[in-house]
Amino acid sequence: MSTQKPDKNLKGKILSSSMIGNALEFYDFTLCGVFVSVLAREFFFSTDPTTSILWGFFAFSAAFWTRPLGAFVFGYIGDKHGRKVALSLSVTLMGVPTLIISLLPSYQHIGILAPIILITCRMLQGLCTGGEYNGAAIFALEHLKTKPGLISGLISCSCVVCALTVMFMGFITTQDWMPSWAWRLPFAFGALISVVGFFIRRHTVESLEFLQANSKPKAAPLTTVWCEDRSSFFMSITTGLFNGVLSYTLFSFLSVYITKYVGFSLSQGIFFNLFGLIAFMTMCPIFGAFSDQITPLNSLKLAGRMCIFIPVISFFLFQMNSGFPIIMGQLLLGTLVASFVGPNHYFLQTLFPTSNRYTGASVGFTIGMAITGGSTPLILTFLLNKLNHLMVPAVYLSVWAVIWLIVLNFLHPRIKLSYKNGSTFEQAE
Question: Domain 12-181+211-424 - what CATH class?
Fold first, then answer.
């Protein structure tokens, strides 16, 4: 078997295909988060706007219930039959539930069937995303051995490119001069671009690292993870937990917070949230490259420490009820989330050997995301209504930062690293 390294053209093609495929799939996945207020109005009947929003977040969270199952299914395919096969399937299948949502009649037309079908479609979206997010990074990092932190940051920021597109479409389609059905157009477009993702993925090649590992007999990946890499598995779960809290506070909750609790319109809330996402997208590669210098472990420790106090500053700025302070708060929070998410993939890559990396990293991470990703907007909305204090989200984020640092310091010393500084090495016996 040839051990020749991929040339520069192939490296560029692999990185771009991973980034573009990930971006296209997250376009579909984030649609429901951006349009949660519209979906709540269309598909859930309630005379109370707050109850309607809570039901909307419940539907949004449904995608996180099935992400671990998707990670298990696509992780098995990726570890047994190849990363390319798993990623091509996940991005193609994502378009089906997105198309259904774009055509789904409202509660007024088909009654209880509307929320049932919507929640089912969200579960199917979660199934596909469970195999995509970590898998795309694993595929790229196994091909590209230099500057893994930078590659990790680029993969992380790629999902925001299409998320920003969704935010822009949300801003346009929720204007008063648009027809009431205009929100359906971004969903229809999302179904179309899933086909584009398939054609991008089919022209890549499998990683040499996977081909070498796949030539050796091995047990079922999840069995191996549980027997040999249990500390790594729990570490990946905790990473997913904290990632879910940070990411979906920024991506899904802030526009609702600024709209419902600060007092701006929905289109204004979406507009302000754009600044947070732009900061996240810009800073992910920077913090990823920074992790190449100080190691991903130290980078994530730094992110946890910053999260203890930065949310307090951000939410204080939001309460000033003025455009400039809100934008500054969004920029701060977007930078904070990037400090954790940017080096994330590099960190997860170090925890597992090649033979079970797709399964171990994806299943563990998505279990954590399933617990906090979908529930965070729901919990924060509930707590704000119960406690009636606008600093509740800041305290919530700070508490999770302390939990992350405690678990990281306890678990990480017990992990046998399998990947470091751009080169692989065998796990200790």
Answer: mainly alpha
